[in-house]
UniProtKB/TrEMBL annotation:
The chain crosses the membrane at residues 17-35, 42-64, 95-114, 190-216, 237-258, 270-298, 310-328. GO terms for biological process: amino acid transport. It comes from Pikeienuella piscinae. CDD domains: TM_PBP1_LivH_like. It is a multi-pass membrane protein. This is Branched-chain amino acid ABC transporter permease. The keyword Mitochondrion does not apply. Keywords: Amino-acid transport, Cell membrane, Membrane, Transmembrane, Transmembrane helix, Transport. GO terms for molecular function: transmembrane transporter activity. It is found in: Cell membrane. Pfam families: BPD_transp_2.
Length: 343
């Protein structure tokens, strides 16, 4: 029971990232009909927003501290972050410590702007082009973004710690009635799952309960009819591209303490996220979320030593095997709509 619970938690952790990225992919495909292979790069850019804010907050002024001497008796130079000079040691240190959560506020306008520029500057010219052209141009854009980040930050992973309050692990077993110390799980991974659930709920609530969202859903179902009603659906779809970019960016921000950001992390998640979208059903938002968590849990169980001893390497191919089985039995995926990418 302990091992099963740990694997479920691991699966929810992985599935959270898959679901958030796949949700953004499906938003773009469902509204604009564009297969966006640059979406993984947006996840990576979000992670580097957290890195950037952390570096900005650690910019320091240098002063001479006469009370501290080196071994020759010379006064030492002391670096003090500007935020500590401005807000005091206690508040300034807290701001630096909470740089990752604060990066959410930093990343949202940046990701919205990047999404808007991508859609207006490039993607809009490929709406009526074949999906193969869309894949090629967005994949090229992903490589460009990846190389820009590599040139600016280097090729090595950059550690981005979580706040001190969330360093360590929770005795999760006690919460569910198991023996103490039977299921120990990192705080931040639990925070990431809860954060993902909040973002997913916010996106669905926005689409379901706001006038803007209802118009977008209507446009996804019948774009021409909505346009005939005098609604500028193209403008709304452009804003949804920015929202999808922001969702991917926020997923990357909060993932930074789990996996130190590096320039190729977007590509690592991209292929798996597209598999999630296809399994869930092209254009289906609930399908993308359900498939993300389902495949995350299956991948987690497949990574158990007991399973790998029976079928070596199963953890590397389990997602693709499940995708093959589902698509053979349900060609449109779990919740795919009729007519999507069937022309």
């Amino acid at each position: 029971m302990d091992a099963i619970l740990i694997q479920i938690l691991n699966g929810l952790d992985k599935g959270s990232a898959y679901a958030l990225i796949a949700l953004g992919l499906t938003l773009i495909f469902g509204t604009l009909g564009v297969v966006n292979f640059a979406h993984g790069a947006l996840f990576m850019v979000g992670a580097f927003c957290a890195v950037t804010l952390q570096r900005l907050l650690n910019i320091s002024s240098v002063s001479i501290d006469e009370t501290k001497k080196d071994f020759l008796g010379n006064p030492l130079k002391v670096e003090t972050p500007y935020v500590e000079n401005w807000f005091g040691d206690t508040v300034g240190s807290a701001i630096i410590d909470w740089s990752v959560p604060l990066a959410i506020l930093f990343a949202i306008p940046i990701m919205l702007l990047i999404g808007y520029v991508m859609e207006r500057g490039l993607i809009r010219h490929f709406y009526k082009r074949p999906h193969a052209d869309q894949i090629l141009v967005t994949f090229g854009l992903a490589i460009v973004l990846q190389e820009i980040v590599k040139a600016m930050y280097g090729a090595n992973p950059i550690p981005t710690p979580a706040p001190d309050a969330f360093v360590g692990s929770l005795d999760f077993g006690v919460l569910v009635g198991l023996d103490p110390d039977s299921v120990i799980y990192p705080y931040w991974r639990l925070i990431y799952f809860l954060f993902s659930a909040v973002v997913i709920a916010a996106v669905f609530s926005f689409l379901r309960f706001t006038t803007f969202g209802m118009v977008v859903r209507a446009g996804m179902a019948d774009r021409e009819t909505v346009g005939l009603l005098g609604i500028d659906i193209d403008k709304r779809f452009t804003l949804m591209f920015g929202v999808a970019a922001a969702v991917a960016g926020l997923a990357g921000v909060m993932y930074a303490p789990i996996n130190s950001p590096n320039y190729h992390m977007g590509m690592d998640f991209l292929v798996l996220s597209f598999v999630v979208v296809v399994v869930g059903g092209m254009g289906s938002l609930p399908g993308a979320v359900i498939a993300g968590f389902m495949l995350g849990i299956l991948e987690s169980f497949a990574s158990m030593n007991e399973v790998k001893s029976i079928i070596p390497g199963i953890d590397q191919i389990i997602i693709y095997l499940v995708a093959i089985i589902i698509l053979l039995t349900r060609p449109r995926g779990l919740m795919g709509r009729k007519g999507v990418m069937e022309e």
